[in-house]
Amino acid sequence: MKDVLSQWLGEPPTTAVFGRETAAGLATFLTMSYIIFVQPAVLSGVMFDMKTGLDFGAVTTATCVSAALASAIMGLYARYPIAQAPGMGENFFFVFSVLPAAALLPVVRSGQTTAWQVALGVVLISGVLFLLLSLVGVRAAIVDAISPSMKNAIAVGIGLFIAFIGLQNAGLIQKDPGTAVRLNAHLASPDLIVFFFGLLLMAVLRARGRKGAILWGILGATVLCLLLRATVSYWPAALRDGTAVKESMLMTRFAPATALVSMPPSIGPTFFKMDIRHALDFTMLPFILVFLVMDVFDTIGTLIGVSEQAGFIRDNRLPRARQALLSDAVGTVAGAAFGTSTVTSFIESAAGVEQGGRTGLTAVTVAVLFLVALFFSPVIRMVGSYAPITAPALVVVGAMMMRNALRIDWADVSESIPAFLIVIGIPLSYSIADGLALGFVSYPIIKIGSGRARECRPVMLVMAAMLVLYFVLVRARLPG
């Protein structure tokens, strides 16, 4: 048994290893646990004050079960500390693009089926195609075809992206009609007090070389949050009555947990309710393609970014890439059967990597916690639904991922320009897939134009051509 564990972990199964990996899994889970509550709010339409037909509770259970299954496969089969769950972006595409298109089908309008069942069928079909690409090794070939500079650019771009998300989630960076974004002037608001406390605590602990800095920062921010919520009524009147306090997320969204446990919601309303037959209607085929493209490039981007950060890339190759890429394909198929949208690798896995996670035990820990969360949803809701608690982790991880910028070959313009487009494109387009596309399309063009076509593998040429078609035929027609 010990030999089996050693082979799986890649090192002797000591107490220290188990402690490090489970702590990393907990850190990853806490930074991505918001999906447990965001996903059902999006798919059910509650977030938008509309009804999609999908049951909120059933989607909650489907989200946790599919995330647990995909993360367990990643940990046990691929042996990587990368967690998976229904992806942000794909869920909005599901609601605002696929559902309206499905609602126009004659069979839906006549009441023979529902739009959400057809949409789940679309997700399942894209997942099956995804699975086939993984089995024949196409996706692994894609990963190996990407140059070292491009791989490191992906890591940097994702680092900037998640740091930007963290700053936005905390409320430090806000939207502005004139300049797009601006700094929040209310630096003494409860939200930012919690955020800065967690951020500085993590930074100080990391600077002192303490293990578990990110996890302790999250826990410390949670304790401070509870104290602020309990004592805000005793604050000086000038501050207590200020806009920064009254409109803060702490006062309007955060609610201390009133119970410790609750029974999981039934998955029955969505379980195996996908409509595959009508999802194959000609009008739905473009949406299958879009889901496939989004999942392929979101997953590849996240996998490479986190793997570069963890040091898994060897000689420009990712060991066990086929196994790693297979897990989210299976997760997507299972997720559609359970009743949720596309499952993909989460960039928040970088939080666990920074916590010290290096083996599949980290992902397995996340899988277990997703299942446990179904019984402890009041507590998970308290921590995961209040962004300033987990936002510092995203900023710290983003800062750590910036070190990969040193590995980009800035002296070679044919490498540095496409890499830069990825670095700047991911956060500014607010999309990993779109940011990658900018770099992947420009890469072969610059290589060929500079007389160095041999350095560009055929796979990169095919990818560039597909992405051009994606931009022209599909992306231009999507909302936003």
How would you portray this structure in words?
It is a single chain. With 480 residues, the protein is an all-alpha fold. It has one domain (2-477). The chain has 24 helices and 4 strands. It has helices at residues 2-9, 15-32, 35-44, 56-78, 90-103, 106-109, 115-135, 138-145, 148-170, 190-207, 213-231, 237-240, 243-246, 249-252, 276-279, 285-310, 321-338, 349-355, 360-373, 377-384, 387-401, 413-429, 432-449, 458-474, and strands spanning 84-86, 173-176, 180-183, 343-345. A two-stranded antiparallel ribbon has the order 1-4. Helix 11 (213-231) runs antiparallel to helix 21 (387-401).
Q: Which labels suit this protein?
A:
mainly alpha; two-stranded antiparallel sheet; 67% helix
How do you describe this structure in short?
This protein is mainly α and 480 residues long. Helices cover 67% and strands 3% of the residues.
